[in-house]
Structure to design on (595 residues):
């Protein structure tokens, strides 16, 4: 809205200070439908209108004499018509229809002429009226100190005029944020309602004025205030959190800081009461004054265990308390491990020892054991195994395979707090001659009269030089595999076994190879199968025979044999290459067996 206008002289040529806009009816500072507006000339004038208002007519300056003529030189109003006429000594500017324009500024420009006067120009600008927003009345509010979140409803929110559609913004501020912080606003334009939320500052009391303002996007605003009174409430005193405490039997006192808080009472006026649950393990005292004090917990003589300490703080009306645990650890005597004498054992054997433990404070079953050796070639961590028994533990010692010699073994026993006791003993491991290790040879097969291919034989002996080993050969059928037909060749760990069956023999025999290092031996056995082959009979060489013609028969000796059949079963057949000279029928075979 425009401020109320001052009415001045309305005649051409009036001083600039009288170039004012004058609403004719009622002294309002704005033009409403049906109003007559009188303006002076030679100036620029503004008419503020409600939305869609109509100015029936505008009278332009009064002449001193004679008639005036009014002309319009320009306008940008979207009206049915804008006309200028004269009425006596006035020029009348008519505006028909609501003042509307698509341009940012709505204006009419023109000139006023009258007899005997200098023509005057004018500009009339029309400005839409922006009504302020509205907000319903907010009542005073009284709440206690430390009250929970408060929600105040807002109502009656509007743009201020039904025909004004604007985006509204609601804000809220507190005059004293140390009592009430600025509220949180929940509002969505163009709703008529909303809410504000706030909670008083902890332990604060007093009054604060809350100002809620509704602002439109044209810059107009409306503010509603209400008073929030926060009444004081006596808060109970309290202590900062207290943690558990720990000390030793007959040990030094424990000092526990006590931080006292009370927003309503002077700290020096606060009192403390301390109690200890049964059975007590400490005595108590409090040092200091004000908000920072110290609780002293002194262990009772020879007392151990756990008690609950309760500290109560009072302000004369209200109180609060906190409890915590105080644990007094007993004085820990170390465990005791019975002496261990020197021990001896054979190589690759196992030794068992009883570890007898006593402890005045800790259960025997809670003991832990660590073992070590100063000879890692004889004993390592895997050589020791501990099993708990009622008297302590049973120690099982197994040296590394094939290892011998001596080592100092240290046994450390610890109770459940880690306090140790230890013993060391000498362990002697007597060497034991290990037998040679002989490799396996798979079963073999060959044909009659055919030697076996060379057989690889792998040996090992951790105690003896492999080149000093002796060998023995056994055959379950020496007629098939004579011992002399089994030959072992080579040196070191890789040997070659050569086997030749007896001539003309077939069947199977178990061959056993034994390696000896002088005191112990190892053997391996395998079967040799010799496949049967039928050999041809044999006949001795018959020398050439020279005869005279018509000479009587002569005797020619020869022998026969067969590897598989007796000579008596052999048949001898004779034929002649020249029957005309020596007929085959003239040759007779005599004799028996091989001759």
């Amino acid at each position: 809205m425009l401020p109320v206008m001052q009415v001045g002289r309305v005649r051409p040529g009036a001083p600039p200070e009288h170039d004012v806009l004058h609403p004719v009816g009622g002294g309002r500072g704005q033009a409403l439908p049906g109003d007559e507006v009188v303006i002076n000339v030679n100036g620029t004038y503004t008419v503020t209108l409600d939305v869609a208002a109509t100015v029936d007519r505008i009278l332009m300056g009064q002449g001193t004499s004679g008639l005036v003529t009014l002309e319009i030189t320009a306008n940008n109003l979207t009206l049915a018509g804008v006309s200028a006429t004269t009425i006596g000594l006035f020029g009348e500017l008519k505006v028909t229809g609501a003042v509307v324009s698509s341009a940012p500024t709505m204006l009419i420009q023109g000139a006023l002429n009258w007899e005997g006067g200098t023509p005057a120009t004018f500009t009339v600008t029309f400005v839409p009226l922006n009504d302020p927003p509205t907000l319903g009345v907010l009542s005073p509010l009284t709440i206690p100190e430390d009250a929970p979140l408060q929600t105040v409803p807002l109502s009656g929110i509007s743009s201020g005029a039904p025909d004004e559609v604007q985006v509204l913004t609601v804000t809220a501020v507190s005059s004293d944020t140390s009592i009430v912080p600025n509220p949180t606003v929940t509002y969505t334009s163009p709703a008529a309602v909303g809410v504000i939320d706030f909670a008083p500052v902890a332990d604060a009391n007093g009054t604060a004025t809350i100002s809620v303002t509704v602002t439109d996007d044209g810059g107009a605003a409306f503010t509603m205030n209400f008073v929030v009174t926060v009444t004081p409430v006596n808060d109970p005193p309290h202590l900062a959190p207290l943690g558990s405490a720990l000390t030793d039997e007959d040990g030094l006192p424990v000092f526990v800081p006590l931080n006292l808080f009370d927003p309503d009472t002077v700290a020096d006026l606060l009192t403390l009461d301390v109690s200890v649950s049964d059975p007590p393990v400490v005595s108590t005292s409090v040092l200091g004054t004000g908000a920072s004090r110290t609780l002293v917990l002194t262990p009772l003589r020879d007392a151990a265990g756990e008690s609950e300490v309760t500290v109560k703080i009072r302000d004369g009306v209200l109180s609060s308390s906190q409890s915590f645990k105080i644990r007094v650890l007993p004085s820990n005597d170390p465990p005791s491990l019975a002496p261990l004498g020197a021990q001896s054992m054979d190589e690759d054997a196992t030794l068992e020892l009883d570890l007898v433990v006593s402890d005045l404070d800790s259960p025997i079953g809670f003991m832990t054991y660590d073992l070590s050796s100063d000879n890692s070639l004889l004993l390592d961590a895997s050589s020791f195994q501990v099993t708990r028994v009622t008297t302590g533990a049973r120690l099982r010692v197994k040296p590394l395979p094939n290892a011998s010699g001596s080592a100092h073994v240290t046994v450390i026993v610890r109770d459940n707090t880690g306090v140790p006791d230890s013993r060391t003993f000498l362990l002697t491991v007597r060497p034991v001659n290990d037998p040679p290790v002989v490799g396996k040879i798979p079963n073999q097969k060959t044909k009659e009269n055919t030697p076996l291919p060379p057989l690889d034989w792998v040996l090992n002996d951790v105690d003896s030089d492999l080149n000093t080993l002796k060998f023995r050969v056994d055959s379950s059928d020496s007629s098939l595999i004579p011992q002399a037909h089994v030959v072992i060749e080579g040196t070191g760990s890789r040997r070659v076994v050569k086997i030749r069956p007896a001539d003309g023999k077939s069947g199977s025999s178990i061959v056993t190879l034994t390696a000896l290092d002088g005191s112990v031996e190892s053997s391996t056995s395998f079967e040799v199968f010799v496949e049967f082959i039928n050999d041809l009979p044999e006949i001795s060489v018959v020398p050439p025979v020279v005869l005279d013609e018509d000479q009587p028969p002569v005797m020619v000796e020869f022998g026969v044999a067969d590897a598989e059949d007796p000579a008596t079963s052999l048949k001898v057949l004779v034929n002649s290459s020249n029957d005309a000279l020596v007929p085959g029928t003239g040759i007779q075979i005599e004799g028996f067996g091989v001759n």
Observations:
- The two ends are 166 Å apart (CA to CA).
- Confidence is low (pLDDT under 50) at residues 1-29.
